[in-house]
């Protein structure tokens, strides 16, 4: 999966720098049974996706507001504004970033469980 995404990132950078438009080869398809024309039509539809930051903020303001201290709410607002500026007009990239961030707590939890098991600390309470 990483190799396929890495190739796509390299092709995207080449296209932005040199203006080259490389054809989609069948190795980059998720479903190899799809033909190139069908894959191209899906990619064209993906470019039509739009995310309007103003509408997102409007929806956020229309929601029931949760009372939170300024210490918590201020970093949240700053991070939202940062995401709006970094991923403006790129909804798929924004979604991918948020999905990656959402997986981090799970990864750290599993890592700590593995660490406890590796050092034998999970048995310490039983041995006492």
What does this structure look like?
The chain is 70% helix and 0% strand. The radius of gyration is 22 Å and the shape is flat.
- What is the overall silhouette? flat
Helices, by number, come to: 6
Largest sheet: none
Strands, total number: 0
Euclidean distance between termini CA atoms: 45 Å
Spell out the helices and strands N to C.
HHHHHH
Strand content: under 5%
Mean of residue pLDDT? 78
Helix content: 55-70%
Which segments are poorly predicted (pLDDT under 50) over 5 or more consecutive residues? 24-29
Report a brief summary of the structure.
The chain has helices at residues 2-18, 36-47, 53-62, 70-86, 91-119, 124-127. It has 128 residues and is an all-alpha fold.
Using brief descriptors, characterize the structure shown.
128 residues, mainly alpha, 6 helices, flat
Explain the layout of strands and helices.
Layout: H1 2-18, H2 36-47, H3 53-62, H4 70-86, H5 91-119, H6 124-127
